[in-house]
Design brief:
mainly alpha, 6 helices
Length: about 130
């Protein structure tokens, strides 16, 4: 159970840092405008923030495991298309904002809003928060 928790948390952390932070420096090195990259990065964070409560409600409705699976699928599916979009259309602002800001923002919200609940649910209630 511990390795699942570590792997899940590491995957979400990678999305948090690769999407809004590394993609900015990577794309500006390829000619994107610095301001555009910052707007897209901020848009991803804002999208994640705005969707935190709806994703929490979804988690309450269908369960932590299902939302964690949906988050993993969204991260897996969004990676290559977003990379191809910002690689091939880095100078077009709407493509950049939609791909990094919206697509990765939604994936980040689904994957990251409840990942720590998933870590808790890997263990039976009897041993949670006991230090075992």
């Amino acid at each position: 159970g511990v390795m699942y928790g570590i792997g899940g948390t590491a995957a979400v952390s990678a999305l948090w840092y690769v999407g809004p932070l590394y993609a900015v420096s990577w794309s500006t090195a390829r000619g994107s405008d610095h301001t555009l990259a910052l707007v897209a990065s901020s848009g991803a964070q804002l999208m994640s923030l705005l969707l935190a409560l709806p994703v929490g409600h979804l988690t309450d409705t269908v369960g932590v495991g299902a939302v964690t699976l949906l988050g993993a699928i969204s991260v897996t599916i969004s990676g290559l298309p977003v990379y191809l979009l910002i690689e091939n259309f880095a100078e077009q602002s709407w493509v950049y904002i939609m791909s990094v800001g919206m697509i990765w923002g939604v994936a980040q919200a689904i994957a990251g809003s409840t990942i720590y609940l998933f870590n808790c649910e890997l263990f039976p209630r009897s041993i949670r928060a006991t230090g075992v």
